[in-house]
Structure formats: C-alpha cells, structure tokens
Design brief:
CATH topology: Rossmann fold
Strand content: 15-25%
CATH class: Alpha Beta
Order of helices and strands: HHEEEHEHEHEHEHEH
Strand order of the largest sheet: 1-2-4-3-5-6-7-8
Shape: globular
Number of helices: 8
CATH superfamily: Alpha/Beta hydrolase fold, catalytic domain
C-alpha cells in the first residue's frame, strides 16, 4: 500500500506522455501521397501547415526550386490534389509551386468564414518568406474566381484564371470593386459553352479588371478549370499558352 501513490504517479505521467505524443503525431501534416494517393507520386512535395491572418490553419504543399513561385488554387468542393498534375509540369519547367486546401476543404480548418482572399494571401506570404522573387497566382473555377474577386490587395507578378468568374453563394464573397484595382498582368482562359462560367459573364468581369496588360484565351467546347491544361482537346495549346505567359512575365 505504501507504493500505491508512487505507482499512481507513474501511471499518470505515462498517460500524459502518451497523450502528448499522440497530439504531436496528430499535428503532423499528412504527406502529399497520404493526402492525394498515387496521383501525388509525380510531385516530390513537402507538406506543412500555415495560418491565415484571421487565424485558420491551412494544409499546404510545396515543390520545386527557383526564384519564381506559382501559387495554385483549386476549385469548389475539391482540394489541392486536383492541382498536382499541373504542378508537376511547372516544376519540370524550373518553377517552384505552392498549393493549398482552401478553408473548409480537404485538410484545412472548417469554418463558416468565406474569406478566401486570406487563404491566398497566406500562400503568397509563405512563398515570399521562403525566397520567391516573382509570384504568380493560378486558380481554376472557384480558385480562379477567388483570384479575380479577392486578391486586389496582393502584390503579385501576374494572375491566371482558368474558368474563374464570380464566387457562387456559399463558396465565397465577391468584391466587384476590387477588379478595377488589379494592376498586375491578367490572363483569363475559358470556353465558349461553359455553363459554369458563361462567356458573357466572364468577359464582363474581364473588362472590369484594371490591368493594362490583360488577355483572354477562349476555346471551343465546354471545358472547365484544370481541364484546359491537362485533359481537354485544347490542353496542348492552352498549356503552352499558360507556360509561355508565365515565362514572359517572370
């Protein structure tokens, strides 16, 4: 009986140690291959957590080297895994990439806040803090809309929107007044018959963008988002355009 207090103390210390160890393990971001499966095998990436200025934790990955970093923003109801294929192509061209899960998506924090611009700002901040001299934003669908609608205060070298026009209710908050304040070069890639990004709406938003160096590339069909640089019939031309556009503005 005299040893009972000591035994209880040992058990308590072991329990606390076990809890702390488990908490540390749980806090380790999943590897890209764990998060995205075999599709991430084409990209030798490192995963990490980042915190937005309004206090939410985002899951991010980075890969490649070089002084130019391309931040990739995924579409709605998805995650960064959909960007892996094009990320690998960018890395093969000598660029560094940073991709992330928007708040409420993938492995990032769930929140009722729709401030997607803060997520993009966190990715750009990480790129700059880790050596980027030039930074570009590329987003598809929701990600492209967020780049157009929510990043006018970000100092970047260029923006590319793949089918991104406006944020639908429940996905984000549009800021039409910010379009005129965009000054960095801007490229919009879309399709003639894409019901998710109707061409009249896309062109109306494009006209409001304040950049003097801006361009549209409209392809036949109804392709959307990352299809333009990966799987569509237009992919070879669209991909070449995007890569050449980045190279000419870096």
């Amino acid at each position: 009986m005299t040893h009972a207090p000591k035994l209880a103390l040992v058990v308590l210390l072991l329990a606390l140690l076990s809890t702390a160890t488990a908490g540390a393990a749980d806090d380790t971001p999943p590897a890209p291959t764990e998060a995205c499966g075999n599709s991430a095998g084409v990209l030798h990436a490192r995963s990490f957590w980042a915190t937005t200025k309004d206090g939410f934790r985002l899951y991010m990955v980075e890969a490649g080297t070089g002084k130019t970093t391309v931040v990739l923003a995924h579409g709605g109801r998805s995650d960064l895994c959909e960007t892996v294929g094009f990320a690998a192509k960018l890395v093969s061209r000598g660029y560094r990439v940073v991709a992330f899960d928007f708040r409420g998506n993938g492995r990032s924090a769930a929140t009722p806040s729709l401030a997607l611009g803060n997520d993009l700002a966190a990715a750009v901040a990480h790129a700059r803090q880790t050596g980027a001299e030039h930074t570009f934003l590329i987003g598809a669908s929701m990600g492209g809309a967020a780049i157009a609608q929510n990043t006018s205060t970000l100092d970047v070298d260029g923006r590319i929107s793949l089918s991104g026009t406006r944020l639908w209710p429940g996905f984000g908050i549009n800021n039409p007044a910010g379009l005129a304040r965009i000054r960095a070069p801007y490229l919009y890639v879309g399709a003639r018959d894409d019901w998710r990004a109707p061409l009249p709406e896309a062109l109306a938003i494009f006209r409001k963008v304040g950049a003097r160096d801006k361009r549209t590339a409209i392809y036949p069909g109804s392709d959307h988002g990352w299809q333009f640089v990966e799987t569509s019939r237009s992919a070879p031309r669209a991909r070449a355009l995007v890569l050449a556009w980045i190279a000419s503005h870096a």
